[in-house]
Specification:
The structure holds two protein chains of two kinds.
Chain A: H1 3-60, E1 76-82, H2 92-109, E2 113-119, H3 121-129, E3 136-138, H4 147-162, E4 172-180, E5 186-194, H5 198-205, E6 216-218, H6 221-304
Parallel strand pairs in A: 1-2, 1-4, 2-3
Antiparallel strand pairs in A: 4-5
Chain B: E1 5-11, E2 14-28, E3 31-35, E4 42-46, E5 49-55, E6 60-66, E7 68-73, E8 76-81, E9 83-86, H1 92-105, H2 108-122
Parallel strand pairs in B: 1-8
Antiparallel strand pairs in B: 1-2, 2-3, 2-5, 4-7, 5-6, 6-9, 7-8
Helix pairs in contact in B: 1-2
């Protein structure tokens, strides 16, 4: 076998092996999307009911709560950025990171300090490499987050927002995650969790314009709100984590699908080249034999004279 | 026909139970509260404790609920809990083991959780 042909054969073998891996990853991701989507759907009733309850208390009572009223001049904001633990998911993590960068810039332009909270190894690595300050970070559960994970993420945030700004607390709480629109579309979005903007909460609830009844609060409106808001933050973070997980799997499936397709194309064009090389080799051999034979014939013809 | 109210018992990650009921008893931070159809709109904070739902068929559904909220409006009652389990989902032996362990470790929260589970099963 000629050297050229051997090189082609080796490359084809290597690409075939890679293609098998990407194909497997694609199929695993595809099966996980469905699971993740189901989890998002399962968490919806709780989130919807909770938003409804929060809206009800905040609109139905005249209570002024630290978490629902906007501070006159907010000076510090916290951003929760949700990225993935693993790579090979196309632009999934970097899109979320870029969105967080834009949000950070906007908040800085408004004169606010920004505290970064990061979920996922990719985000942590990005911030670590650029030596940016990370207030807190969590890794290891972005594949399939549980409610307990959301609680763990929410705890320091709730603590920070309840502190006075002068003592290191924050005035605003933003979240950056990847919204799962469909199998093909996932958008990195940012949203403000606190202070609560009630119109938005009602809109998300899908119950815009619904007149909420006058509630009787047990034990009191303040206590109910005190208990509700941390749960609300947790549930929002949980929902964001679940959507991000679904988006991550969808992004990985797409990235792996195009990798598999590319590997297929490569194998095709390399086999064409390999075939041409083999054919060229054969042609050369034939012409060598023919040439050799005619030279022999010429030589014997010559000696006969 | 007896009046009915619609009940949704939802945990953070799933819908635990939903259906029609004639009476729901739950424990709020200020004491047990019973809700029947036509109750005035209510929003309360729940303590961990058993929730009793008397369904319109006359059955009784008991669930262990750990923290959360009760909200009632327009004859619809929502019980929101981070963790909620129906009595027949609870693993009694596991809850008993958890109770013993919590007692020996003097973990009040865990002891209470296990206790609520057991009480939900025994009724």
């Amino acid at each position: 076998m000629g050297a050229q042909l051997r090189v082609y054969k080796r490359r084809i073998r290597a690409i075939t092996a890679t293609k098998k891996i990407t194909k497997a990853m694609e199929m695993i991701a595809a099966s996980r999307i469905v699971k993740a989507q189901r989890k998002v759907a399962a968490s919806m009733p709780y989130a919807t009911e909770l938003t409804r309850a929060v809206t009800a208390v905040a609109t139905g009572s005249n209570t002024k709560h630290a978490l629902t009223t906007e501070v006159e001049a907010p000076t510090r904001a916290a951003i929760v950025l949700i990225t993935s633990d693993r790579g090979l998911a196309g632009g999934y993590s970097s899109n979320a990171i870029k969105q967080a960068d834009r949000l950070t810039e906007r908040l800085r332009a408004e004169g606010k300090e920004v505290d970064s909270y990061i979920v996922g190894r990719k985000g942590v690595a990005y911030y670590g490499f650029r030596e940016r300050k990370v207030t807190d970070s969590w890794t290891g559960f972005t594949d399939s987050p549980a409610y307990a994970d959301a609680k763990r993420v929410a705890a320091p945030l709730i603590e920070a927002i309840q502190l006075e700004t002068a003592e290191g607390g924050v005035d605003e709480l933003h979240i950056v995650y990847t919204e799962f629109v469909s199998m093909m579309t996932q958008n990195a979005v940012d949203g403000r969790m606190l202070p609560l903007s009630l119109d938005k909460a009602a809109e998300e609830d899908g119950a815009k314009g619904e007149i909420l009844p006058l509630f009787e609060f047990e034990p009191s409106a303040e206590d109910v709100l005190d208990a509700l808001l941390p749960r609300y933050v947790e549930s929002r973070i949980y929902n964001a984590l679940l959507q991000s997980a679904a988006s991550e799997h969808a992004a990985r499936r797409r990235a792996m699908k195009s990798a598999t397709d590319n590997a297929g194309d490569l194998i095709k064009s390399l086999s064409r080249l390999a075939n041409a090389a083999r054919q060229a080799e054969i042609t050369q051999e034939i012409s060598e034999i023919v040439g050799g034979a005619s030279a022999m014939a010429d030589a014997t013809a010559g000696s006969d004279k | 026909m007896a009046a009915e109210l619609h009940v949704e018992l939802v945990a953070a990650d799933r819908n635990v139970w939903s259906g029609e009921a004639t009476l729901v008893v739950a424990r709020t931070t200020s004491g047990d509260i019973g809700v029947m159809p036509g109750h005035q709109p209510l929003l309360g904070v729940l303590e961990s404790g058993p929730v009793t739902i008397r369904t319109s068929e006359g059955n009784t559904v008991i669930a262990a609920v750990h923290g959360g909220f009760i909200s009632f409006a327009d004859n619809k009652l929502s019980l929101l809990a981070e963790i909620a389990e129906l009595a027949d989902e609870i693993d009694v032996q596991r809850a008993e083991r958890a109770l013993e362990r919590a007692k020996s470790e003097a973990d009040a929260a865990a002891e209470r959780r296990a206790d609520v589970r057991l009480r939900a099963v025994t009724g």
